[in-house]
Amino acid sequence: MPEVEFNGEKFGVDEDGFIDDYKSWSENWVQYCKKEEGIDEMTEEHNKVITVLREYYEKNGIAPMVRVLSKVSGFKLKHIYELFPSGPGKGACKMAGLPKPTGCV
Fold it and tell me: Where are the beta strands (DSSP E) in the chain?
C-alpha cells in the first residue's frame, strides 16, 4: 500500500490518494491535502465542511451526497466547489479523511 509522509507523520493511502484508515486522520493530513488541493489558507468555512463530513460519516458510515452536504453545512454547492477546487468528493472528503465516495471520479 502506498504511503505519504508529511511533517514526520506517515499515512497509508489508496491508489487514489485517499487515507486508508479514517482513525489515522490528523491536522497533518489536512495540511498535506491542503497543499495538494492548492488551498492557500484554511478558513472556518473549510473547517466547517470537514467537520460536517466527519460527523456525518461517523453517524452514517458513508459520505453524504453533495446536496445533503450543502444542506447540512449551509453552503451552496457552488461555494463548496470554490472552497475545494477538486470538488466535495475528491477534495473535501479526502481532506476529511473519509474513504473515496462511491461514484467519485
Answer: 3-6, 9-12
Residues identified as active-site: 104
Position 102 in a domain: no
The answer as to whether 103 is a domain residue is: no
The contacts found for 72-80 with CB under 8 angstroms, 24 or more apart, are 73/48, 73/49, 75/45, 75/48, 75/49, 79/45, 80/49
Look up residue 29 and give its three cell numbers.
493530513
Q: What is the pLDDT along the chain (105 residues), one digit of tens a residue?
A: 799 999 999 999 999 999 999 999 999 999 999 988 999 999 999 999 999 999 999 999 999 999 999 999 999 999 999 999 999 988 999 999 999 887 554
Structural domain of residue 19, as residue ranges?
3-95
SS3 for 98?
coil
Q: Annotate 40-64 with DSSP letters as a single string.
A: SS--HHHHHHHHHHHHHHHHHSSPP
